[in-house]
Design a protein that fits this description.
By secondary structure, the chain is α+β, with helices and mostly antiparallel strands. 56% of the residues lie in helices and 7% in strands. The protein contains 26 helices and 8 strands. A 5-stranded mixed β-sheet has the order 4-5-6-8-7. The longest helix is centred in the first third of the chain and has 27 residues. The chain starts with 8 loop residues before the first helix and ends in a 6-residue tail after the last helix.
Length: 633
């Protein structure tokens, strides 16, 4: 394993210099070959991917600001280096000379995708267009890096006294930083979750919600506007009307029109259900028509407490982060016939980071993963899984990824998780499993390297286990008594799963609509117009003085024109889980089938083919509609 614990900026600078020289040597070797093999291209991709995981990744996790800053700089250096490689005409001609008639199916898919990269680099454009394309690409690299950097650097806080935080438990208050008699609510998720779910003071929820949704608004709004304009110009160079059309051509959806069809089918059902949900949820003398966005999670939590007959702060006592994590591992070991073991993490980038390995049914190690789960200054602010290394083709070096999240820290607080945080942990671990189990002879097909509108399905499916009694009993353990949740309480919790689900899903739809608007024909509209038009779908009135698009990291983090994929993948994930529903929630038979036909395949097959192979039919939204209690009409 790479030793992150003692690296300096100079080490990273030398690593970049030396590894890029190795990359150039590999490219020259390809050019010198009469008939280069696909393996040489794969070796180059592995070299650069490893470099990114050693150096650029530090921008999101290092505790040293100097190293985080250099990680951002390194990402720009690597992306610009790759741009030079893919625009190299001699390399492109050499690649085109490869004969595909003797290649196997997976190799043909690899050839087609690399060829697509070369075409996207402008080799089929005239000189003037290609020159402009390179200018656009270089500018987009800088914009995307700065956008992410500004979100991580945002220091927004809300200062509240104890009376303004009525409803929060002693432990939750104790987790806040304190200045004299005031509590500092940062934009870290444990702080945000505590206030938005439990604070009885509506004005406090409003202040925190607005601060969170206005993060990086001044620095990132102009960056976003410039990026979407450049993307649209790039799409035009290739003969497409919009960036969404250009981006979706190789996704499951294929076109923005199919995204519209999905929304047109689901939104009316969700909106009808949302009207009933508002009536059901409204409390504290707030009329259904007056419900604001900062009320929804509080109302849902309150309703869940009533339905389960257990207070949210009491429920949290059953979900100590290490207990939940270890039980989650145990469930995955049983269902997928794998083994997860703790490894020595002294070479990690922070003392809180853990290192684990995954072994197959023959007890052979197949991958490693880090868990970096607690908030700290300058760290990535959301929850995601990052590829660190694809390993080597000979499997001497194994694939490595890292979950980076912001859960309650047991080293500085009580480490008790909300139920939503438990769900997030399972979700992200779905990505870890996909990265750790997925196999291919080509690095670009390993693990979660699949179509962007399918990538969330293997993580969405994991969320289902959180709500099932068979699993709840395994990962719930009272921090004081050691008791697990009894069957009756598990069932009551499970019955509360869909409380407010339509309102929450419509919020996700609004994100997807904003994303499509930004990357559609009206991309030049103001960010305020795009924000407010997308929010109409929620049936909730939003304030005019907030705009979350500047802090919407997905927009410049790979999900551009693809945020609809969360809902798309949710529908597929529910359908995939229907086999577990029908054949056994913890069925090893189904689990191994899922591992072999979905997880292990990685991106070496098209998602449609994988899903049909596992289900024995084409996927549909029937399971999704049933799960969300939306019916089929």
């Amino acid at each position: 394993m790479f030793d992150y614990s003692t690296i300096t900026k100079l080490d990273l600078e030398n690593d970049i210099k030396n590894t890029l020289n190795i990359g150039l040597e590999q490219i020259q070797k390809i050019k010198n070959e009469d008939t280069p093999s696909l393996g040489l291209f794969d070796l180059f991709e592995r070299t650069i991917s490893d470099l990114s995981g050693r150096v650029a990744f530090m921008a999101d996790v290092s505790k040293e600001e100097e190293i985080r800053d250099y990680g951002n700089e390194a990402e720009s250096i690597i992306e610009n280096f790759l741009l030079e490689v893919t625009t190299d005409k001699e390399l492109y001609e050499k690649f085109r000379s490869i004969k595909t008639n003797t290649l196997d199916k997976e190799s043909v898919k690899y050839f087609d995708e690399v060829m697509r990269d070369f075409i996207d680099a402008g080799h089929e454009l005239d000189h003037e267009k290609k020159t402009r394309l390179i200018e656009i690409e270089k500018k987009l690299i800088d914009l995307e890096i700065n956008f992410s950097k500004n979100i991580a650097a945002d220091k927004s806080e809300v200062i509240l006294d104890q009376s303004q935080l009525k409803g929060l438990s002693f432990d939750e208050l104790n987790n806040f930083r304190k200045e004299e008699e005031n509590f500092i609510v940062t934009m870290a998720y444990p702080d945000i979750n505590a206030v938005l779910e439990n604070c009885e003071v509506r004005d406090s929820r409003k202040k925190v919600w607005k601060a969170f949704n206005n993060r990086a608004i001044m620095s990132n709004s102009p960056i976003l506007k410039e990026a979407v304009a450049l993307r649209n110009e790039k799409a035009n160079l290739f003969g497409f009307n919009t960036w969404a059309e250009y981006r979706l051509q190789h996704r499951m959806a294929k076109s923005p029109q199919n995204v519209v069809k999905m929304y047109d089918n689901l939104v009316p059902k969700l909106q009808n259900a949302a009207q009933d949900e508002k009536v059901e949820l409204a409390t504290d003398n707030i009329k259904p028509s007056e419900i604001a966005p900062w009320d929804i999670r509080y109302f849902i939590t309150k309703k869940r407490n009533e339905q389960s007959q257990v207070d949210n702060n009491e429920i949290k006592k059953y979900f100590y982060i290490h207990n939940v994590k270890e039980a989650m591992f145990s469930i995955c070991e049983d269902v997928f016939e794998i083994t997860i073991n703790r490894e020595d993490s002294r070479t990690a980038w922070h003392e809180d980071v853990e290192l684990w390995s995954i072994s197959d049914q023959n007890n052979k190690k197949i991958s490693f993963f880090y868990l970096d789960m607690y908030p700290r200054d300058g760290k990535y602010t959301h929850a995601a899984v990052f590829d660190i290394s694809p390993g080597s083709a000979d499997e001497i070096n194994l694939p490595v990824c890292s979950m980076v999240a912001n859960f309650p820290n047991p080293n500085t607080g009580n480490g008790l998780m909300t139920f939503d945080e438990v769900e997030t942990l399972f979700h992200e671990f779905g990505h870890v499993l996909h990265n750790g189990i997925g196999k291919s002879k080509f690095a670009r097909f390993l693990g979660a390297n699949v179509e962007w509108d399918f990538v969330e399905a293997p993580s969405q499916i994991m969320e289902h286990w959180v709500w099932k009694s068979e699993c709840l009993k395994r990962f719930s353990k009272h921090i004081e008594t050691g008791e697990t949740l009894n069957h009756d309480l598990c069932e009551r919790l499970n019955s509360s799963k869909n409380i407010g689900i339509s309102l929450l899903t419509l919020r996700q739809v609004s994100f997807g609509l904003a994303d499509q608007h930004l990357h559609g024909i009206n991309f030049n509209d103001s960010l305020d117009k795009i924000e407010h038009e997308s929010q109409i779908v929620t049936t909730i009135k939003y304030p005019d003085d907030t705009n979350h698009l500047g802090a919407f990291g997905h927009l410049l983090g790979g999900y551009d024109a693809a945020y609809y994929g969360y809902l798309w993948a949710d529908i597929i994930g529910d359908d995939l889980f229907s086999r577990f529903e029908n054949e056994g929630i913890l069925s090893k038979k189904v689990g191994i089938d899922y591992k072999n036909k979905i997880l292990s395949v990685g991106g070496s097959k098209d998602a449609e083919e994988m899903v049909q192979d596992f289900l024995g039919r084409k996927w549909s939204d029937e399971a999704f509609l049933n799960q969300k209690k939306l019916g089929n009409s």
